[in-house]
Specification:
By secondary structure, the protein is an alpha+beta fold. The chain contains 11 helices and 10 strands. The chain has helices spanning 8-24, 27-34, 40-48, 67-79, 86-100, 103-114, 220-256, 268-297, 302-324, 339-351, 356-369, and strands at residues 120-123, 134-139, 142-153, 160-167, 171-178, 184-188, 198-208, 213-216, 258-259, 262-263. The two termini are 24 Å apart.
Length: 374
């Protein structure tokens, strides 16, 4: 597909996002969050701004835009290290309902997720690793789910969770589970990145009625693939935001910091490092924009491009933050500085929803299926 230039509407959206988050997710706010403060006010504001449902049809209470617009918002959140439930609720839970839900299920769950009345998450054990699984047993009245899923984004505080389970006879099952239901246990799992919230979901004989089952078997698998593409674009957008902010911070510092009577940014070694980051950022940005267009349009190459964007953007962000943290010397390693926060978020972005090896393997497999290799 041909990649369009960033149009006036998206440029305006980017300006609004950046201006809003400059205050709502300022350095002081982010440090307060990582020190143990909550981010409920920011979540409410994000919902009120319409960002949770920016790519949701207007008939369901959304903004009627596309994935490219959602990527603009997510890029801003990455740059600001914003602690929001946008990933769990807007990208994943709403995305799962749009991909697999019936009209009735969408009308029931999507509007309250979009307006902030409900918080959501998605648990996909067995997709990115084989360590855990949730088993689904069909009964005469629906399904019973048993199993665990770790490191589920935005699980703590979620009202509903879309769970990928596996039935020995029917294959994959996508079902909506209410966290207040009997047999559901949620435990917070701390990580190095305190701007995000992850948790462990345990299901012990949880009954799910037919009205809460989104898809089974051959209808569930394409929905899961579409959700993987969607979250890959989301993580790439977050990582591009991190890289852009790290580069901005680094270039500003190197223009001001002097050594031997001149700014350190004039030294060849420092210029090379900044140039490497810029080249990586531009490549990641272009690939992100292409992936958002393709995934939003359901293009045949969408999965391949989404995985490429996730791998490249997250790797660039982690390397950029790792380089930048060294330039201010010891100051860059202190807890009071913003760079360690960006570095930790970038490293978690690399690991979440498939690391680089996982996505590169996926790309190779998709190339083989497409007849380009092998």
């Amino acid at each position: 597909m041909i990649l369009p230039e960033l149009d006036a509407d998206r440029r305006a959206l980017r300006e609004v996002v950046d201006q809003f988050l400059a205050e709502a997710s300022s350095s002081e706010v982010v440090h307060r969050v990582v020190d143990g403060g909550g981010a409920a006010a920011l979540d409410r504001a994000v919902a009120e701004m319409g960002w949770v449902g920016i790519d949701v049809p207007e008939s369901l209470g959304g903004g009627g835009a596309g994935l490219s617009e959602l990527a603009v918002v997510l890029r801003g959140c990455g740059a600001a290290s914003a602690s929001t439930r946008l990933l769990g609720t807007g990208v994943l839970c709403v995305g799962a309902l749009l991909a697999a839900g019936s009209d009735d299920q969408r009308e029931r769950w999507v509007p309250p997720l979009v307006d902030g009345s409900l918080a959501g998450a998605v648990a996909m054990p067995g997709v990115f690793s084989s360590g855990e699984r949730v088993a689904a047993q069909e009964t005469g009245e629906g399904w019973v789910l048993d199993g665990t899923a770790s490191f589920v984004v935005d699980l703590v505080g979620a009202d509903v969770v879309v769970v990928r389970a596996v039935s020995s006879s029917a294959g994959a099952v996508l079902a909506v589970v209410q966290t207040a239901a009997d047999g559901v246990s949620v435990v917070h799992q701390p990580t190095v990145d305190r701007t995000r919230s992850l948790g462990r979901l345990a299901l012990d004989g949880v009954a799910v009625g037919p009205d809460a089952v989104l898809a089974v078997g051959s209808t569930a698998d394409p929905a899961i693939e579409a959700l993987v593409d969607r979250v890959a674009v989301a993580m790439a957008a977050d990582a591009v935001g991190i890289t852009s902010r790290v580069l901005e911070m680094t270039t500003t510092y190197t223009r001001q910091r002097e050594q031997f009577g001149r700014p350190i940014g004039s030294f060849q070694a420092v210029k090379h490092q900044a140039a490497d980051v810029l080249v990586g950022l531009e490549g990641a940005r272009v690939l992100l924009d292409q992936a958002a267009v393709e995934v939003g349009a359901g293009a045949a190459t969408a999965s391949r491009t989404a995985s490429m964007a996730k791998d490249l953007a997250c790797g660039v962000a982690a390397r950029a933050a790792g380089t930048a943290i060294q330039l201010p010397g010891g100051l860059g390693y202190t807890w009071a500085h913003d760079l360690p926060i960006h570095l930790k978020r970038a490293k978690l972005d690399e690991a979440l929803f498939g690391d680089g090896r996982w996505h590169r393997s996926r790309v190779v497999g998709l190339l083989g299926d497409g007849g380009l290799i092998g």
